[in-house]
Amino acid sequence: MLGLGFPYSPAQVGLTLLTVGVPTLSLTMWARPEPPDPHLLANLGRFVVPAALVTAAAGVAVYAYHYTTLLAGPPGGEVPADFVARFEDWTGLSADDAGFSEAVATIGAQTALSTFVSYAAFLLILFLKPPSRLFASWTRPDGDRRPALLVAVLVAIFTAGLLMPWFTSYFGLTEAAQPVFTTVLPALVVWFLVLTTAYRFRLLDRALGLTELAGPATTGR
Questions:
Q1: Three-state secondary-structure class, residue 135
Q2: Alpha-carbon distance 180 to 197, whole Å?
């Protein structure tokens, strides 16, 4: 929609093994038997919709910033030779080929977006199963530390993968670069604060007039 290339390649979609597959399987195995929730769909929407909207908005901002920055090139106009060589390897194109600049901007922005969304997905587990009051904006901590340990393991695996050429090559990413993290980490802080506010003050409920329904944040489920 923004005309800034396509935000994901098929290989990058494979990262959902870490962001969706493993967390879903683990949380399902650890789930405790509970009575049916009479407001299941409403509560599901309360969790998913704010997370989707905030993550999508932040992801678009991260992607657009990196795409436009890379497409414009360095401020001085001179591109280091090693920088060009690495992007030639990542894109499979020569610097003299038509579309090289767009390919550079696309793969760089895709790497930033995949990095941001992956870390955000891991942190969402802490909102769903908070280990402490810091993340208890959606529901109260239940004393189960396994989800927090899972998050730590997933963050460690993904971060280590960004430093390994075989991992980044397989998923169609660039190597871990300072410009990515100088954007992604602040974006994650903003994302966390906005999502915490949305959950804690039940902004979706207020916008839709659903404040009369009890939710996990008040019932402790």
A1: helix
A2: 26
H or E element, residue 86: helix 81-91
Report the C-alpha gap between 70 and 90 in whole angstroms. Answer: 14
pTM beyond 0.70: the answer is: yes
Left (φ > 0), alpha (ψ -120 to 50) or beta: where does 175 sit?
beta
Residues 36, 199: Cα–Cα separation, whole Å? 22
One pLDDT digit (tens) per residue for the chain, 221 residues: 778 888 989 899 999 999 999 999 999 999 988 888 888 888 899 999 999 999 999 999 999 999 999 888 765 556 666 767 778 787 777 777 778 888 889 999 999 999 999 999 999 999 999 999 999 999 999 899 999 999 999 999 999 999 999 999 999 999 877 778 899 999 999 999 999 999 999 998 888 876 655 556 544 44
Asked if 9 contacts 110 with a C-beta cutoff of 8 angstroms, the reply is yes
Q: What are the boundaries of each domain within the chain?
A: 10-29+39-59+109-210
Strand, coil or helix: 123: helix
Most distant CA pair in the chain: distance in Å? 64
Work out the angle at residue 21's Cα, subtended by the Cα atoms of residues 40 and 133, and round it to the nearest 5 degrees: 60
Q: Tell me, what amino acid is at 187?
A: A
79: left (phi over 0), alpha (psi -120 to 50) or beta: beta
